[in-house]
Amino acid sequence: MKKIINSPETLVDEMLEGFVDLYADIVALVPGTRAIKRKDAPISGKVALITGGGSGHEPAHAGFVGPGMLTGAIAGDVFTAPSLEHTLELSKEVYSGEGILYIIKNYAGDILMFETAMEMLEDEGIKSDKIIVHDDIAVDEEDGEIKRRGVAGTVLIHKIVGAGADEGLSLNALKDLGEKAIARVRTYGMALSPCVIPARGEPNFTLGPDEIEIGIGIHGEPGVERVKMQDAHTLVRSMMDKLLKETVFADAKEVLLMVNGMGATPLMELFVVFKESISYLKELGIEVSRKMVGEYMTSLEMGGFSITLLKLDEELKHYIDYPTRAPAWRI
Amino acid sequence: MKKIINSPETLVDEMLEGFVDLYADIVALVPGTRAIKRKDAPISGKVALITGGGSGHEPAHAGFVGPGMLTGAIAGDVFTAPSLEHTLELSKEVYSGEGILYIIKNYAGDILMFETAMEMLEDEGIKSDKIIVHDDIAVDEEDGEIKRRGVAGTVLIHKIVGAGADEGLSLNALKDLGEKAIARVRTYGMALSPCVIPARGEPNFTLGPDEIEIGIGIHGEPGVERVKMQDAHTLVRSMMDKLLKETVFADAKEVLLMVNGMGATPLMELFVVFKESISYLKELGIEVSRKMVGEYMTSLEMGGFSITLLKLDEELKHYIDYPTRAPAWRI
């Protein structure tokens, strides 16, 4: 394993130390934790928005903390749920009296940790609620339960709910807004090459020189289908077809398109994927009025990309366009 | 070779098509060329700034075209000098009557092409001048000739001279400003893993599982020294020591620090490198008043990073802080 680190044990804390130094005008570390908060929190009269999850997805999630987006984010070890204790500390630190909304990616460990935190905070008189993001179409429902994972689309939820919180929406209204956006966002990803979790030291799967994985998640797990290498045109069209089969897009006239790099993919290849996506959506008569290309939700040094579509309406466009100072937001 | 492309032959044009679609409010393609220009060019009363070089360094250079930075950029094939014809077309397209300054990275092919363009334009009455960036300390002077390559520091030159041009400096004054900045900027880079030029299909060098290359350039060439894998602390200090041995930094009190990812390096590792750089410079009593972490000048999917230092003064800080709308500029 070749990584530019000191040790797997100190990696997350050292990364956060660098992060808060770089963006010291916007964020601060809650001392003794792996929690990042808006420097100006608590924000009087506003609901606090908190997310968190394993590290290894940078710039998510700390990069999306800032005015107009998240109030705080807690980092766990690489691909591991964050600490309950840090979540409690962060929550108390940023609570303004208007409640807390937790934005959780659909992973059992994350949900369990946040739900426990919510119960414990309730005992202390802190009101909170949660929304769960499950935008990854690779893994489907099982026994009536949603198994879909939360992936790159989560960043759009941070943006939309973050703008709503800044406008002063109530906890209930923010939960409704978040669930509306979650119902309209879908993501599909692929990998050319795996990533290596630092504490493990070897990849979770291997791929032949002409093989790719379709339907990957963001934790170094293999995809749902292994296929032969394809050209960008063919690959993007088949991934887009799968996305557009989702019922929510049956009547889609206007969408946001996000092409997200998984970590090791050159920007020039992301632009080719973007170009192929744009031309196909144009052919299909779907207007792409908001466009994003870059690294938003990565999986360490995995090679590959994901495509996210969000069905837009006037309300969602308003919140996507709303100003934010979160360091990693780009549109 | 696994790359998300259609073919090596169409890659650059398809990338540029995606790029101008994404940033259509700022840039446009000069039809029939691989030249990107500011949409609002020519800019009356202002010197035009043009750069160019091989593709594969994205977001450089097209990402730095925009108000407050470059007027135009020409892309060649991957790691190949751009076309003379496209350079001439772009130059005529953005020429406002105030002259053109070419910002050239120190590679023989690029210099030859731009110098030829300058001569041909002079015959048509278009006045131009050039500055040559050679910030890479890995390769040293030979027979009195500067062999140092232009690498990530070039982005800072685009920024400084771009701001000066926006303020209305003359061609001569801009050349002086650019040369002052070039004299104060130095870069040193390392690689964990090589990249693959699409038209070639295999890496230029191979590295053992515990080997790294120090002193790399940005064209997939090996470094000047092959060493055993080191922890981030040791690696950053030895690279920083080499940088700080440069005469220009002997009396440095205040610097800009840029930690640049080569393409495949996770952001979390760049933050560790940044944190190590910041603490070392602090120990040495050097103030880091401007800080950048991210991908600015890449080398396809090479794994590794470069560190750039710019010795600051009030004038350079003014130009670094000057507003720009170029899509890839972040500080």
CATH class of the largest domain in chain A: Alpha Beta
Order of strands across the main sheet of chain A: 1-2-4-3-5-6
Distance between the termini of chain A: 34 Å
Could you name the CATH homologous superfamily of the largest domain in chain A?
Dihydroxyacetone kinase, domain 1
The residue fraction in helices of chain A comes out at 25-40%
Count all strands of chain A and give the number: 12
Short overview:
Chain A has 331 residues and is an alpha/beta fold.
Written description of the protein model:
The structure is a homodimer of 331-residue chains. Chain A is an alpha/beta fold and 331 residues long. Chain A has two domains: 173 residues, Rossmann fold; 136 residues, Dihydroxyacetone kinase, domain 2 (Hypothetical Protein Tm841, Chain: A,domain 3, 2-Layer Sandwich). Helices cover 31% and strands 23% of the residues of chain A. The first copy, chain A, has eight helices and twelve strands. Chain A has a six-stranded mixed sheet, sandwiched between helices. A six-stranded mixed sheet of chain A has the order 9-8-7-12-10-11. In chain A, strand 10, helix 7 and strand 11 form a beta-alpha-beta unit. The longest helix of chain A has 17 residues. Chain A is globular and about 55 Å long. The model of chain A has no long low-confidence stretch (mean pLDDT 96). Chains A and B meet through helix 1, helix 6, helix 7 and strand 12 of A and helix 1, helix 6, helix 7 and strand 12 of B.
